[in-house]
Amino acid sequence: NDLTAEWEMKWDPTENTRGTFNFPGGDAIVAFAEANGMQVKGHALIWHQALPGWVASLSAPELRIAFEDHIRGVAGHYRGQVRAWDVVNEAIDDSGRGLRDTVFLRGLGADYVAEAFRLARQADPDAELIYNDYSAEGLGDKSDAVYDLVKGLKQRGVPIDGVGMQMHISATGYPSLANIAANMRRLGALGLKVNISEMDVRISDVSGDLTTRLQVQRQVYHDIVTVCVAEPACESVTFWGFTDAHTWVDAFFGPDDPLLFDERYYAKPAFSGVEDAYLGR
Ligand code: 9MR
Question: Which of 60, 124, 126, 277 is buried most deeply by CB count within 10 Å?
């Protein structure tokens, strides 16, 4: 009952040429959702990837104008049509020490994160505004840095409503369920909602035959979705694709089968694992 655009609402497709906005893909997703009783979460207004080349060539004052125009242009276009936005994506450095070195940090300074949320609130006052990141699902340096960032935003009255935990994981190694739950709880205690925003579970490194590996995958999906169901702060789970025929994982990590439906679009064991989680089984 909830859709997110994997590509279509990013900067590169929506404003490939400065000041010229195009929304064919995102509009099609919104129309499909409306026709099928689904809601849409927008993804992602400010990210250091999927940027057209012209952004990197701007002077700092021009970047500020383009940054404001982009958020107003995209969030304004979808005003009232999306339930939420990933406003800033992946702004914490992988070291867990502070903000990632990006064109936005260099040109606009650390306050660009707060500014993005303020602009998004103005452009679409009813959308839930989310900070989204990866490798920050459990407890550790990076999730501490995400926590510190969003806590600071909340304390300063910046309009942020939630945190997305991407959850791109391998069945052979992922944060403990207890730590995922603890992280959800501490974010919830700040008054923030939490969502699992881009879940997929790789199984190419799991030993055993395919049947065994699919059962391991089923268990991981089941257990993590169960954490979300159990934690009051966790409001939704999004899978980063639905059929193994189309997944970013194949290109990035090598051939894998990380999603809930197989390449022929048949439900996998992982699907019933998720179903069981939602039914409390
Ligand atoms: O899955 C997405 C892939 O199709 C795109 O080519 C890529 C670049 O825009 O982004 C992928 O999605 C990423 C998401 O937007 C942010 N978190 C990591 C995801 C996987 O790279």
Answer: 124
